[in-house]
Amino acid sequence: MAVAAPALAPEVAAFYGSQSVTSDPGVHAGLYADLPRDPARLARIVRDVMLHRAEGGQFEVPIAEDRMRDDAETRYIDDILGLIAARDGRSLACRREWQDRFIGICRDFTLLHVSFLRHLGIPARLRSGFADYFSDEGFHWDHVVTEYWDESRGWLLADPQIADPDRYQVDFDPMDVPRDRFLVAGRAWQAIRAGEADPSRFGLDLEENPMVGSWFVAGDIRLDLAALNKVETLLWDIWGTGAENEAGMTDAIRDLYDRAAAVTAGPDPDFAAVRDLFTTEDGLRTPRTVLSLAPLRGPSRVTLR
Fold this sequence. Notes:
With 305 residues, the protein is of the alpha+beta class.
């Protein structure tokens, strides 16, 4: 007989079961009427209104350059929902044609999924880390997935981006991603530091400008800690203590991320420790204004809501 997971502490359930500034649908909350409670059905709704910008070439779907730029650099869910509704005013449960979908990245799929779950009072959060299921060569790609609370099993990982069996064939349930297939950033850092993993196998394995290494993993820890505190930024937002390449990594930086990894690496991070580290460590806390290295619009200073 399966043993039920311990109950989630009330303050943790309340925190992750309510919207953040980023995930709040705002004036578009009416679009959430009659959402199903099943996380898998919610993920399929997300999948059917969004297209990853890399899938244009993968699925041979033409994407206008301005759509790719403006959609994928949209920061807040209310703005994302506004774009979706303007192109097709039907219920979100209606599958969109390719040309009418929001063009985003993994973070956007996950943010909408988390927004749905929180709307229904299901505790949920974004997790930044590295997935090995986009490559047959053992490379761990920079990625973002949902972590949601299942009353019988505890915190589970889910990947709404791959919630389409016609396009993605994986040997696991996308609503229960094995934790050895997606490593949260802190766990990846610990494996690298222990000599159990090659840092060059983590990041973005791009032909023209590969971005890999422990310095990249450290940046994902910073993003993950922020998301655990319900500050869900764009993946190219920069702040705090870090390095631009492997040569820039110092002992002080490594010590900082050793501490951050210790707090964030486990399957159930200590809520008080997550909150305390984020609020007290200037090198990790997200400031009001960040440097956004937007890949298509170019670098700019952005003041968050």
